[in-house]
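Worked example

This section walks through a single chain of length 104. The input is the sequence exactly as stored; nothing has been trimmed or padded.
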Amino acid sequence: MSLEAIEKVTQVEAENKERKAAAEAEAQRIVADAEREGLALLQQARTSAAESGKELLRQAEAKAAERSAEIGRTAQAEAAALRETAGQHLEEAAEFIVGRVVKH
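Given that input, the structure is written out below as tokens.
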């Protein structure tokens, strides 16, 4: 083989090594970028899920407070109705009691 051919083969091998090293570096950069973007997306998803959870909890608490107020209003109305009914029968009950005490 001539010296020129050996130099050409050596030059091609060196170029191939450089291309291979550049390709490996690019592949590592792509993997690192993908990992970084993946971690950022994961963090964003976690943050979004946490915010959604907080919003759902806030809505549930609001509904619970609303329902609690409704139950309270209903209980107050029922208590008022019972007091009114009891008040209507109070005189009747007093007369019954007095009548029983007097008879005995």
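What to look for: The first helix runs from residue 3 to 103.
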